[in-house]
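Quick one, tokens below. Sequence please?
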């Protein structure tokens, strides 16, 4: 089939043991549900072609477009702390890479496109609900300015998948800087395949970290930079109340993007111990644990890279430790700096971290909604008459009042124009996040009634998260329950 997609596949240069060549399995009755036209254009693809019969056939996995060399990648991973030597793309197939308008190389991958040699007992398929959730939440994250995989399309398969019940099936087309994970390195390290490790590290240096490639110790620089990007990423998650839910090493991209939107969720009422995933019974991946888990995962990456860091093992460990030391300061700077911006504080001063921490402590004690507290603080920074919208979020509103006195004293030290400050705060404190109750209602409408209206409306609101959208203000509201007790199930 002729295709206007200029595939340019760099992985084809990697040895065959990195992947299995496998085409997607055709589906019974493909129907394009949604195409992300803006993303298609960003990638230099023709959205009209993608929406047409040939494009839809490709996005469903029913036809392999010219230039596409479909593969399923091998990887391993620590899942909830336990090492699994072989995972791999069990229901995802990489169609190929394209170079976008900005010169960045991007993967185009189908998820839910049929079995592969890595499927183990799985069917290789995805259900419509999780596909729409991944589409919506990943696009919301992108609009929030957080590095993430993107969603190019969702296609209904016309087939049912067997989960607890029979559910409509779908395929999502995911776009990523790459799909190389910490677990990809672990796969080869576990097999003692130093040659493959080096080829993979060189590939990642070339693709994602060209600045490190020229350094004196490129693999150490690579590890430090992966750690730095991960530190930035997790700080940004915390600053919007995002809980990834399943931070296994196979779900950590070495490119620093958020990947795998299975059991993720956004916090409503602030509580750092929040866990949403029903499979995370010990709270390993709770909101506040995410930085330390990221570092734990990076330590597993460091272990995998040891043979490349130095011949002598003691020296290799010292090199790894030196590289991992990049994580903590980078995280602290990103998180503290981000909190200061959320509070409208100017140049850092002593006491800023304590001021921010005290607000968070009061929010936790008073079950204040995370997103609304910070958003409503923007107006309060402009005029104290707007305090009511913040204080009313606290079980004990006087807890906010006491804190606000200290906050205003601190703001006065900056001497910044209050309208400019409020505008700057609105640019970092979103009004709209994908609220769990809205996401669930959207999925229910799509699955039970084939109604994608709520999906479209929610996606439109979330594409402008920092703008006040008065007509759609209901999407900013917290659920009546405060979100307590909400549980997600692993995306299937
Ligand atoms: N229905 C399925 N059929 C086959 N393999 C599956 C299925 N569901 C999950 N897997 C595999 O189980 C492993 C863990 O699944 P997990 O839910 O973390 O990943 P995923 O959502 O399928 O993919 P990704 O991490 O690429 O977003 C992966 O190797 C995945 O390919």
């Amino acid at each position: 089939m002729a295709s206007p997609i200029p595939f340019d596949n760099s992985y084809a240069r990697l040895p065959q043991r990195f992947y299995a060549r496998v085409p997607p399995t055709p589906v019974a009755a493909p129907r394009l549900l949604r195409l992300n036209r803006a993303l298609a254009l960003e990638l230099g693809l023709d959205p009209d072609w993608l929406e047409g019969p040939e494009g839809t056939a490709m996005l469903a996995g029913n036809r392999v477009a010219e230039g596409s060399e479909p593969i399923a990648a091998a990887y391993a991973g620590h899942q909830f702390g336990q090492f699994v030597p072989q995972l791999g793309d069990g229901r995802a197939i990489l169609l190929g890479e394209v170079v976008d308008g900005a010169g960045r190389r991007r993967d185009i991958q189908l998820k839910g496109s049929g079995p592969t040699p890595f499927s183990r007992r799985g069917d290789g398929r995805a259900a419509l609900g999780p596909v729409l959730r991944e589409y919506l939440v990943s696009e919301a994250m992108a609009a929030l300015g957080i590095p993430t995989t993107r969603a190019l399309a969702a296609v209904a398969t016309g087939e049912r998948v067997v989960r607890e019940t029979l559910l409509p099936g779908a395929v999502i087309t995911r776009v990523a800087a790459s799909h190389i994970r910490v677990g990809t390195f672990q796969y080869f390290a576990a097999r003692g395949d130093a040659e493959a490790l080096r080829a993979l590290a060189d590939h990642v240096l070339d693709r994602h970290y060209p600045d490190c490639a020229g350094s004196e110790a490129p693999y150490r620089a690579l590890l430090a930079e992966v750690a730095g990007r991960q530190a930035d990423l997790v700080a940004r998650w915390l600053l919007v109340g995002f809980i990834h839910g399943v931070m296994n090493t196979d779900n950590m991209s070495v490119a620093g993007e958020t990947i795998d939107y299975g059991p993720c969720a956004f916090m409503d009422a602030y509580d750092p111990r929040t866990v949403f995933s029903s499979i995370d019974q010990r709270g390993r991946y709770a909101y506040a644990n995410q930085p330390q888990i990221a570092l734990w995962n990076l330590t597993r990456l460091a272990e995998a890279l040891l043979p490349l860091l130095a011949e002598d093992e003691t020296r290799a460990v010292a090199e790894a430790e030196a590289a991992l030391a990049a994580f903590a300061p980078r995280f602290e700077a990103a998180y503290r700096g981000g909190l200061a911006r959320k509070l409208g504080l100017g140049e850092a001063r002593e006491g800023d971290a304590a001021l921010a921490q005290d607000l968070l402590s009061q929010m936790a004690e008073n079950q204040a909604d995370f997103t609304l507290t910070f958003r409503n603080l923007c107006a309060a920074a402009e005029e104290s008459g707007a305090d009511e919208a913040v204080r009313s979020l606290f079980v004990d509103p006087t807890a906010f009042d006491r804190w606000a006195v200290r906050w205003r004293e601190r703001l006065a030290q900056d001497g910044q124009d209050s309208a400019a400050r409020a505008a700057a705060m609105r640019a970092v404190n979103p009004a709209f996040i994908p609220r769990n109750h809205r996401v669930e209602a959207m999925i229910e409408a799509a699955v039970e009634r084939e109604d994608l209206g709520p999906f479209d409306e929610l996606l439109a609101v979330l594409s402008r998260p920092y703008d006040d959208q008065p007509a759609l203000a209901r999407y900013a509201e917290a659920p009546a329950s405060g979100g307590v007790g909400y549980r997600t199930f692993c995306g299937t």
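The CA atoms of residues 302 and 321 lie 8 Å apart. The two ends are 31 Å apart (CA to CA).
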